[in-house]
Amino acid sequence: MIVSPSPACGEKGGVRGGPTQSGERWIDRAKMAKQSAGTEIERLIGLLARLPGLGHRSARKAALTLIKRRSDLLEPLAAALNDAAARIITCSTCGNIDTVDPCTICSDPRRDQTLIVVVEEIADLWALERAGVVTSLYHVLGGHLSPLDGIGPEQLSIGQLLERAVPPVTEVLLALNATVEGQSTAHYLTEQLQGHGVKVTRLAHGVPIGGELDYLDEGTLAAAIKSRRTL
Predict the structure, then answer these.
(1) pLDDT, tens digit, for every residue of 151-191?
(2) Distance between CA atoms of 177 and 67, rounded to whole angstroms?
(3) E-strand spans in 3-122?
(4) What is residue 10's predicted lDDT score, i.e. its pLDDT?
(5) pLDDT in tens, 5-55
(6) In the chain, pLDDT over 70 holds for what percent of residues?
(7) pLDDT at residue 116 greater than cutoff 70
(8) How far apart are the C-alpha atoms of 162 and 43, rounded to whole Å?
(9) Which residue, 2, 29, 77, 169, is most buried by CB atoms nearer than 10 A?
(10) CA 132 – CA 215 distance, rounded (Å)
(11) How many helices and strands in the chain, by DSSP H and E?
(12) d(Cα 207, Cα 223) in Å, to the nearest integer?
């Protein structure tokens, strides 16, 4: 008995997805798997996945939570982000971020105008403010010296710091991270501040080697501030 070939075997006009089109069929399935959500949702997930500490799976969970709570979370968050993008600026004096320039800290007359606390990043400034152990002015370097990464003095706001190290400032506290790069930066700043007539101090007890300020508790930060020493 002779059986004629069925249309599903790949002949012209046959059923798509037959044996001769198995490769194309699997490609189509792969495309369908990648497009399991709309373009807007995939874009939201992709942007969330770029945030620190969020992988793609965590970003999907966050996106689903936002979508489920559209009225009380997604829409207020979107409005807050739009407002932040439109209004937040960098303080031209210290490098902090705020909605005014100079920032709230720099323009506060209750702050100790004789002390400048130098930090690497804005997160470090916020950590010290949370601890509530210092009421001085700040200066954000924007990072640390790292020749291997191409970050030299010109890439940091060191020049602005030297311009601020004048009366009524009498002390510059180097509250830098206890890393190799942070300590190298502190050593460089100490040399640059010589001859400016200010006392240069640095954090002492309480900051572990290799630690970063943003991850320290308030008690440790308080001990570090109180135990600062002159270089």
Answers:
(1) 999 999 999 999 999 999 999 999 999 888 999 999 999 99
(2) 39
(3) 89-90, 97-98, 112-119
(4) 47
(5) 555 444 444 444 445 555 555 555 555 555 567 899 999 999 999 999 999
(6) 84
(7) yes
(8) 44
(9) 169
(10) 15
(11) 8, 7
(12) 9
Neighbours of 165 (CB within 10 A): 22
Answer with the residue of higher pLDDT: 28 or 230. Answer: 230
CA distance linking residue 179 with residue 160, whole number of Å: 23
Burial of 223 (0-12, 13-18, 19+ CB in 10 A): middle
**Cα–Cα distance measured from residue 172 to residue 170, given in angstroms and rounded to the nearest whole number:** 7
Where in the chain does DSSP place strands (E)? 89-90, 97-98, 112-119, 136-140, 171-174, 199-202, 229-230
Contacts of 69 (CB under 8 A, 6+ apart): none
- Asked whether the bond before 102 is cis by omega within 30 degrees of 0, the reply is yes
**158: part of which helix (H) or strand (E)?**
helix 158-164
Q: Are 96 and 140 in contact (CB under 8 A)?
A: yes
Q: What is the largest CA-CA distance in the chain?
A: 107
Q: Measuring CA to CA, which residue among 112, 231, 121, 105 is closest to residue 176? A: 121
Per the structure block, which two tokens stand in for 179? 């890393």
Nearest to 96 by CA among 69, 67, 62, 122: 122
Query: Residue 156: which of 195, 191, 121 has the closest Cα?
Result: 121
Rg from Cα positions in the chain: 28
Tokens at residue 185, please?
Answer: 């930066």
Contact (CB, 8 A) for 171 and 191: no
What three-state secondary structure class fits 122?
Answer: helix
